[in-house]
UniProtKB/TrEMBL annotation:
Matches recorded under PANTHER family: BETA SLIDING CLAMP, DNA POLYMERASE III SUBUNIT BETA
Residue ranges of every copy of the DNA polymerase III beta sliding clamp N-terminal domain listed in the record: 1-123
Localization of this protein: Cytoplasm
Pfam family, one: DNA_pol3_beta_2
Gene Ontology MF annotations: DNA-directed DNA polymerase activity
Record SUPFAM superfamilies: DNA clamp (SSF55979)
Source organism of this protein record: Holzapfeliella saturejae
Protein name (Swiss-Prot/TrEMBL): Beta sliding clamp
Domain DNA polymerase III beta sliding clamp C-terminal span(s) in chain numbering: 250-374
Amino acid sequence: MKFTIDRNKFINHLNHVMRAISSKTTIPILTGIKLDLSQEGLILTGSNSDISIKSTMIKDNELQIQSEGSIVLPARFFSEIVKKLPEAIFTFEVKENLQTVIKSGSSEFLINGLDADNYPRLPQVSKDLQFELNGKTLRNLINQTNFAVSTQESRPILTGVHFVISNEQVKAVATDSHRLSQRILKIENGPDTILDFIIPGKSLTELSRILSDVDDNIQIQMSENQILFTIGHLSFYSRLLEGTYPETDRLLPDSSTTDITFNSSKIFSALERASLLTHESRNNVVRLVINPELHQVVLYGNSPEVGNVEEILNVETLVGESLEISFNPDYLKSALRAFKTDQITMKFTQPLRPFTVVPKENDGQFVQLITPVRTF
């Protein structure tokens, strides 16, 4: 196996594949990166059992192929070596006993490899169920919901984002049982049948990073327990979570007794100031005292060890009943980051009932729900 390649081009593909490789895997060979070389081109593969990424480089002037073959190399060492090579071009050659020689300029490395036949095969995903989705649309869906997934393995189903996709719209929901984020977007030419599946949040985090500069449509294929995203030269596989996602629609209140519209940046800054103290407290809780008669909302935060803070918040509009409610400020800050709008409306019902946060100009397509904290 031997080829010569442009180092920058190789690193671009290598960086994508490295996202799927973990040093904590229970399968030792998965700490390595697999290279498959044929007369058509070079394929790099990385996997951690949950996700697998395959990147294909077609033979061209920047990739010169001398002889075919396959090898698995220790990913971390190989990646660091390639990134520190002195010249723009390097030569890669597998010798006998799976020893691999990497040459660039006056630098030469010898690395011990593993037999590629022992590397697990990538999942087989049928083309019978496939559709396309705009890359920017998918990236927005992930960024607006994935932060609310649970990090607790006690309820594995909540560690993923629940997608329901029809021909005309896609709905994504995430909740950790303390907060919820739901986003609905209109699409064109979706699947002919309604698809219902759950993708692990960790998989979506890596997928979102890959999609950061992708605005074209991507192809999506599904099987019973796997989903495949094809993004140009890149194939991104993720397992799907098994089980039934909770019925979240019933959690969203139909009405409210108190509505407040805030400037997003101003309330975010106030929460940041309050968090300076609440993060030092074991509970990390702020309290809102709402007084419609005075057209006033006061934010309180305290830490028994440090002190307390009190701030009168600027409100755009305030209608409804008086209310006092406590909640985790980090949840509201995460919600505000996801909205990226100038104004948000918070809708309350009772002190111990979840409240919703929506953009001021809202058509029901984006809503977040936060559960209050009992402080008495």
